[in-house]
Specification:
- The chain is α+β, with helices and mostly antiparallel strands and 208 residues long.
- The protein has 2 domains: 150 residues, Jelly Rolls, CATH 2.60.120; 55 residues.
- Helices cover 51% and strands 22% of the residues.
- Strand 4 and strand 5 form a beta hairpin.
- It is globular, with a radius of gyration of 19 Å.
- It starts with a helix and ends with a helix.
Length: 208
């Protein structure tokens, strides 16, 4: 994608969080960057401070960590969503997990340093303060949804939620990562997928 196309997409998709007039946009654009990741490249790395907030224009990432020698996938994010290690970004503490690209990924990024500069900018400070609050609220809502899924939903229900988020997304995630995400083994996931397929085929037969 061309730089201008990326920035235009970013500006349009950000309207729920940040709406800028032309003068404000020209100032804001000087503080953001475009970053491209290859498959498996880290956006943030465990043990290092995450200094960037990203907005995904193309591609996807997964949050993953090592637990007792096993890799665990905790979350996925795709186009038109924010990505960062929020606590590390805000506090400067080392990140506890990796954020890795699932495939070629293009992001628009804003460093913590530049965010702080925008908070102090006389033209943009009020809008950036609101932007920062809305982004934090967005992450908090996603965390609550993820926590709720593990407290009150079965692995099959969590898989169905993932399906409902978009079948294209399912096709872009390796099976082992999906199994890690919903908290089961790949074998158990295969059983769930077969059960859902059988139920769908039976429903089609009854309808016909």
């Amino acid at each position: 994608m061309e730089t201008q196309s990326i920035l235009l997409t970013f500006r349009e998709k950000m309207k729920d969080f940040l709406t800028l007039n032309e003068e404000e946009w020209l100032v804001f654009a000087d503080y953001i960057s475009i970053r491209e990741l290859t498959k498996n490249e880290c956006f943030a790395r465990a043990g290092k401070v995450c200094r960037e907030l990203g907005f995904i224009i193309q591609g996807g990432l997964r949050y993953c960590s090592q637990v007792e020698g096993k890799e665990i996938t905790g979350y996925f994010c795709f186009e038109n969503s924010f990505v960062t290690a929020l606590k590390s970004y805000h506090t400067g503490e080392p990140c506890l997990y990796d954020i890795r690209a699932l495939d070629k990924t293009i992001l628009v990024t804003l460093t913590k340093k530049n965010m702080e500069a925008l908070y102090a900018h006389p033209l943009l400070c009020d809008k950036i303060e609101r932007f920062g609050r809305l982004v934090a609220e967005n992450f908090n809502l996603l965390f609550e949804d993820r926590l709720k899924a593990f407290v009150i939903k079965t692995p099959e229900e969590r898989y169905l939620d993932l399906l409902e988020s978009g079948k294209d997304i399912i096709n872009r995630i390796p099976v082992q990562y999906i199994a890690q995400f919903i908290g089961i083994t790949p074998v158990s996931l295969s059983r769930i997928r077969k059960r859902i397929l059988d139920a769908t085929q039976n429903a089609v037969k009854k309808a016909s």
